[in-house]
UniProtKB/TrEMBL annotation:
It comes from the Eukaryota. The keyword Metal-binding applies. It holds the Pfam family DIOX_N. Keywords: Iron, Metal-binding, Oxidoreductase. SUPFAM superfamilies: Clavaminate synthase-like (SSF51197). InterPro entries: DIOX_N, IPNS-like_FE2OG_OXY, IPNS-like_sf, Oxoglu/Fe-dep_dioxygenase_dom. Coiled coil: none annotated. Belongs to the iron/ascorbate-dependent oxidoreductase family. The lineage of its organism: Eukaryota, Viridiplantae, Streptophyta, Embryophyta, Tracheophyta. This is Fe2OG dioxygenase domain-containing protein. Residues 197-298 form the Fe2OG dioxygenase domain.
C-alpha cells in the first residue's frame, strides 16, 4: 500500500479528526470476582460485577476488562505470530487469499460501507469445520462446511491459534453469563446457542498510512455477531461513537486488557436494551498497528429474535426473527464486492412502529 488510492478516501463527513478525545468513561471492569475460589460464597462481589456490566452495556455498548483469566503468554504468542505472518511478501500472503469459495484466509481489499479499509486481515474459524448454509437464499436448505486455510509461515500459527481461541472462548462464555444475569435471565441462558458456534478470530494489520486524515483502518460499522473480544496493541486507534452525543471517542490502550463490545445479536436478543454501537479505526502515518478480535457467534441455525422473557404487551418485540446463518453468509459473500447499496443490517428486520 503506497500513496492513498481514491478507493480509500472517506467522504468528508466520515473523515477522522486528528485531535483525539481519549476515553474517559468507557468502563474498565475488573473480573477478578469471577476467578476467586470463593466467588459462590461472595455473591455480593458477583452482584456488583453484574451491575457494572449491565450499566456498561446500556450506556456505552463497550467496556474493557482486566483480570480476565486469559494467560498473557498466549496472547503474546498470537500477536507475535500475526507480526511474522504479515511481514511476508504480498505474493506469499495471497497464496491463501480468501475468495468466494474459501471465505476465510488472507484479504487486503475489504470495504466497509463501500470505502476500502487501510488494512490487511487474516481470518480463522474457531470450529473446524464450521457448519453454515450453502447460500444466503432463504428457500435453500442446503448446508455446507467452511474450513480454515493455514499459511506455511509461521508454522506455529495453527497451534498458537488453537491455544488462544479456547481461552477467549471461555472468557466470552463467562461474559455472556454475566450479560444474561444483568438482563435478569439465568446465567446459562445463551450457552446452548454457541454449541455449534460460527465464531472466528481475525488478525488485523494496519500499515502506516500517508494520509490518516482521509482514510480509515476500518470504516464506521457495528459488529454483526453476539459479542466481540478484542486485543489491541499499544498504538491505539479504535474509536467508539459515544451514545450521549455521537462524538467519536478513542479507546485508550490498557496493557493486557480486552475490549468487549455488544454485537447486533445481543441488541436484538435484549430488544434494544443493549445497543451494538458504531466504531471505527484510525490509522497514523508513523506506526503500524495490530489487533486481534474474537467474534463470538452462535450456531448458524439460530433464529435471532427478541427474547420472550424480555418482551410483553408494553414492550413488544422490535425485530422479526432472522436466521443468523443466512445473515452471515449474505455478509460474507457481499464483502467481496464493492456494492452500490449498504449490506445487510439488523434494521432491515425492524418491526415498523
Ligand atoms: O482493530 C480494531 O481495533 C477494531 C477492529 C474492528 O472493529 C473489527 O474488525 O470489527
Ligand atoms: Fe468491529
Amino acid at each position: 500500500m503506497g500513496e492513498v488510492d481514491p478507493a480509500f478516501i472517506q467522504d468528508p463527513e466520515h473523515r477522522p479528526k486528528l485531535s483525539i478525545i481519549e476515553a474517559q468513561g468507557i468502563p474498565l471492569i475488573d473480573l477478578s470476582p469471577l476467578n476467586a475460589a470463593d466467588s459462590i460464597s461472595d455473591p455480593k462481589a458477583i452482584e456488583g460485577l453484574v451491575r457494572e456490566i449491565g450499566n456498561a452495556c446500556k450506556d456505552w455498548g463497550f467496556f474493557q476488562v482486566i483480570n480476565h483469566g486469559v494467560p498473557l503468554h498466549k496472547r503474546e504468542k498470537i500477536e507475535t505470530a500475526a507480526r511474522k505472518f504479515f511481514a511476508q511478501p504480498l505474493e506469499e500472503k495471497r497464496k491463501i487469499r480468501r475468495d468466494e469459495k474459501f471465505v476465510v484466509g488472507y484479504f487486503d481489499t475489504e470495504h466497509t460501507k463501500n470505502v476500502r479499509d487501510w488494512k490487511e486481515v487474516f481470518d480463522f474459524l474457531v470450529e473446524e469445520p464450521t457448519l453454515v448454509p450453502a447460500s444466503p437464499e432463504p428457500e435453500d436448505k442446503e448446508e455446507t462446511q467452511w474450513i480454515n486455510k493455514w499459511p506455511e509461515n509461521p508454522p506455529e500459527l495453527r497451534e498458537v491459534f488453537e491455544d488462544y481461541s479456547q481461552e477467549v472462548e471461555q472468557l466470552s462464555l463467562k461474559l455472556m453469563g454475566l450479560i444474561a444475569l444483568s438482563l435478569g435471565l439465568p446465567e446459562d441462558r445463551f450457552k446452548s446457542c454457541f454449541k455449534d458456534q460460527t465464531s472466528f478470530i481475525r488478525l488485523n494489520h494496519y500499515p502506516p498510512c500517508p494520509s490518516p486524515q482521509l482514510a480509515l483502518g476500518v470504516g464506521r460499522h457495528k459488529d454483526g455477531g453476539a459479542l466481540t473480544v478484542l486485543a489491541q496493541d499499544e498504538v491505539g486507534g479504535l474509536e467508539v461513537k459515544r451514545k450521549t452525543d455521537g462524538e467519536w471517542i478513542r479507546v485508550k490502550p490498557t496493557p493486557n486488557a480486552y475490549i468487549i463490545n455488544v454485537g447486533d445479536i445481543i441488541q436484538v436478543w435484549s430488544n434494544d436494551k443493549y445497543e451494538s454501537v458504531e466504531h471505527r479505526v484510525m490509522v497514523n502515518s508513523e506506526k503500524e498497528r495490530f489487533s486481534v478480535p474474537f467474534f463470538f457467534n452462535p450456531a448458524h441455525y439460530t433464529q435471532v429474535k427478541p427474547l420472550e422473557e424480555l418482551t410483553n404487551k408494553q414492550n413488544p418485540a422490535k425485530y422479526r426473527p432472522y436466521s443468523w446463518g443466512k445473515f452471515l453468509t449474505h455478509r460474507r459473500l457481499t464483502n467481496f464486492k464493492k456494492l452500490k447499496a449498504e449490506n445487510l443490517q439488523i434494521y432491515h428486520f425492524r418491526v415498523s412502529e
